[in-house]
Hints:
By secondary structure, the chain is an alpha/beta fold. It has helices at 32-41, 59-62, 65-72, 80-84, 146-153, 166-170, 176-183, 191-200, 221-231, and strands at residues 2-7, 14-19, 22-26, 51-53, 76-79, 94-97, 104-106, 109-115, 124-130, 133-138, 157-161, 208-212, 239-241, 251-252. The chain contains nine helices and 14 strands.
Amino acid sequence: MRFASLGSGSKGNATLIEAGDVRVLVDCGFAAKELEKRLAELAVDPATLTAILVTHEHGDHIRGVGPVARRYQVPVWMTAGTLKTDRCGQLSELNLINCHAGNFTIGGLEVTPFPVPHDAREPCQFSFVHGGRCFTLLTDLGQVTPHIMQEVARCDVLLLECNHDLDMLANGPYPPRLQARVSGTFGHLSNCQATELLLQIESSKLSHLVVAHLSQQNNSPERVRETILKSLPELGDRLTVAQQNGVSEWFEC
Ligand SMILES: [Zn+2]
Ligand SMILES: [Zn+2]
């Protein structure tokens, strides 16, 4: 199994996971044309996508889902709550995700959806298991729950939100109401919250950590690295910051 970030941040998110002959796209916050361009950088033909999984209905995750699914006849998976917000238009194949029913498989890829606290109708995130390895994707959450800790504790590779630095948010351009939303329990994870999560798991087991969904106003890659590595210096050579404007390399799980 391997994965790549096609871009991450408040202007658009998409992650590609490949396992055997299965290719799953998680979220498509980019317009169809932009997604095609980014997939081309990895030499991936969008017509070969097996499925699109949607975490929630915010535009930075769902913008291109309908257009890409229609253009390439890709089945889409989402929760009933996300579907209810009706952001994708007509879909030729739709599968509902039940976060409380355990895992399901797409081809040979095992997918475990789990609920997260975020200000959307029924947001979820995912773990993927293939060949005995587990990759967990965790962005867009305001706080870490015991259930999330259970899920993260088993992963070998983690893509983790580091949305904002608390000082930069407090002294930045956002009005107080937006600051409260971002740092609230249904908002986004701060660098400190992400570091606390990492301190609670056996992070020495992580073969790679990709940090994602950085705010362009209230965070910086340097600040993220500094915060995490102050507590966990051993992660230094296994830490990558996902970019908003660029496609990452492939990360082997
Ligand atoms: Zn988001
Ligand atoms: Zn969101």
